Amino acid sequence: MWLPTKLEKQLAFAATAGTPLTFSSYFKMDADHDGEAVDFVANGRVVWAPARVDYRAMLVHDHIGALTAMYDRNVLGTRLMPDMPKRQDYALWLSIMRDGVDARAVREPLAVYRAQRAGSLSSNKLGLVPFNWALYREHEHLSVPRSARALAGAVWHSLRKSRI
Description:
Blueprint: H1 6-17, E1 21-29, H2 37-40, E2 45-47, E3 52-53, H3 55-60, E4 70-71, H4 73-76, H5 88-98, E5 103-114, H6 129-139, H7 144-162
Parallel strand pairs: 1-5
Antiparallel strand pairs: 1-2, 1-4, 3-5
């Protein structure tokens, strides 16, 4: 869920950031939270976005929360998420960044993410391993050793992030 000023603040940031790919920090709300997202913000846990991310950093950890990302179509053209079973957003960010674009973040949380419920498709972090492997090998065309290093980093960061 976007906070009321997200679009205004992120568009202003994008106009001065020097990159066509921007994102922001966001609040992480428990799946069973019953209140309104805006009421939750004062008590929420924040997933802090790094100020800047390049392709190399993205290979080992998807730093961009999909609900916060924006890209400038005037600069990049229309870039679609690839037809993959999972990790489509991650593949899109990698394809943009592989072309030499670094992403920059609004450090202020501008959205609220409702965490996955137990048993949901995206709650199984280890279940994403084969999808990440396919992304590295088939979409990014990385060698086996480089894919293995990226996958090890992705698993580590995913486990760490899931405890936030």
